[in-house]
Amino acid sequence: MTVVGPFGVTVRDQALETDIRAGLAAVEAGLVEATKSDVPFLTEAAQHLVRAGGKRFRPLLVMLAAQFGDPHAPGVVPAAVTVELTHLATLYHDDVMDEADVRRGVSSANARWDNSVAVLTGDFLFARASSVVAELGPEAVRIQAEAFERLVTGQILETAGPRPGDDPVAHYLEVVAGKTGSLIAVSGRFGALLSGADERTVHLLTQFGERIGVAFQLADDVLDIAGDGDVSGKTPGTDLREGIATLPVLRLRERIARHGGGTADDVALLNLLDGDLTDEGRRTEALAGLRAHPVLQEARADALEYAARARELLTPLPECPARAALAALCDNVADRTS
């Protein structure tokens, strides 16, 4: 039993391990090359998060999906570079919107430089992703464009919030499917499609990517409250500080509404969450309250449910080491919530 890649997927096949390691190494080299500029400062800013590392979840999914066709097909590595560049670009923009100070264990670009540099660097990375995907043909460009549209729409939906009468949890899951699930779905789709897998396999791995992507984000929601910043590389309570109601908070609101006002402790915690959480003391108190509350376990259960639904999609695929590794991704989501 060995572990491959920064995300830690477990594989039991030497040939698959060799392929995945080689593929991820090629992606890493591609990311460094794609983030070079004739302007040294822009290179430094663009490579800031590349060199900070990361789970490389999306490239890993591209590599595993490609195992159902020809994993060495020429478009596989550029596709993985494309999705990771797009993801990195969104991180630069997210950190500006969230006023985050830390990303992947290092200073965020907006903290190290300023918001303008972070936004423009994100734009530069989007442009480079477009340049790379253009080499893969018009179908790949269309797929990337549709995913980007969904990603931005998800961000807009989050900013606008649910409309009167909307179920806030359902609205949030729609946001997550757009902001996170869409690009991870493309990772599965690109890997299968560009390796020459059959149409049914492409569809299944696209759907798998969407579901595991939602599970991944819901697990992040749990980690934002229960996680260790030294391990995750992200300051706990970042979403709370920015007033973003992630799943545990939404489950608390739902519990209070469902039980006709909730307990006094529920109401007190919600009042705390609705207050100014830019104050570190109040935020620490809110984190402690959520960590001790049943809604955190409910949010964990939601993440595990999506991971289980992702695993179900693997059943029709041929039994092989790659399918086992994809199942291990589902297990790893579960591990992240514990």
What does this structure look like?
The protein is mainly α and 338 residues long. It contains 17 helices and 4 strands. Strands 1-2 form a two-stranded antiparallel ribbon. Strands 3-4 form a two-stranded antiparallel sheet. A hairpin with a 2-residue loop joins strand 3 and strand 4. Helix 1 packs across helix 5, helix 5 packs antiparallel against helix 7 and helix 13 crosses helix 16. The longest helix has 28 residues. It is globular. The mean pLDDT is 87.
Jot down its keywords:
338 residues, mainly alpha, two-stranded antiparallel ribbon, two-stranded antiparallel sheet, 17 helices, 4 strands, 3% strand
β-sheet strand percentage: under 5%
Distance from N terminus to C terminus (CA atoms, Å) equals 22 Å
Form type = globular
Sheet with the most strands: spatial strand order: 1-2
Sheet bearing the most strands, described?
2 strands, antiparallel
Structural class: mainly alpha
| Distinct helical segment count | 17
Please trace the helix and strand order, writing H or E for each element. Answer: EEHHHHHEEHHHHHHHHHHHH
Number of DSSP strand runs: 4
In round numbers, the mean pLDDT is 87
Radius of gyration: 20 Å
How much helical structure, as a percent, in the residues?
over 70%
User: Uncertain spans, ≥5 residues at pLDDT below 50?
Assistant: none
